[in-house]
Amino acid sequence: YQKHVNLRQQLDAQLNENSLVKEELDRVEDGANVFKMIGPVLVKQDVTEAKQNVQKRIDYINGEIKRHEGAIKDLEKKQESQREALSKLQQQLQQQQVKAAARS
C-alpha cells in the first residue's frame, strides 16, 4: 500500500514539473531555439517536437497516476474487508469467552 502511495506522490511531482515545462514551452515562439539535455550534452530540438514530447509525458504520467489510484483503492477495500473479518472474529472470541465463563 505504502509503495503505491509513494509512487503516486512521485508521479504528482513529475506531473507538476512537466506542467511547468509545458507552460514555458507554450510561451516560446515557433522557430525559437530549444535545447534538450541528453546526458552531458545539450541537443537542439524543434519547439513543436518538444511540446509534443512533453504532452506525451504528461499523458503517460496521468495514466500511471490513474493506475496507482486504482491499486490504492483496491488495497483499501481489501484492508477494510480484513478489518471487518478481524472484528467478527474478535466478537466470536468474546462470545465464546462469555459462554465459557457462564459454564464455570
From TrEMBL:
Gene Ontology terms: biological process:
chaperone-mediated protein complex assembly; protein folding
Q: Which GO terms describe its cellular component?
A: cytoplasm; prefoldin complex
The family database entries (Gene3D superfamilies) matched by this protein are listed as: 1.10.287.370
A Pfam family per the record: Prefoldin_2
> Which keywords does this Swiss-Prot/TrEMBL entry list?
Chaperone
Signal sequence bounds: none
Q: Sorted alphabetically, which CDD domains does this protein's record hold?
A: Prefoldin_6 (cd23161)
**Record GO terms (molecular function):** protein-folding chaperone binding; unfolded protein binding
For whether the record's keyword set contains Chaperone, the answer is: yes
What is the similarity comment for this entry?
Belongs to the prefoldin subunit beta family.
Please identify the protein, giving its name as recorded. Answer: Prefoldin subunit 6
State the species of origin. Answer: Magallana gigas
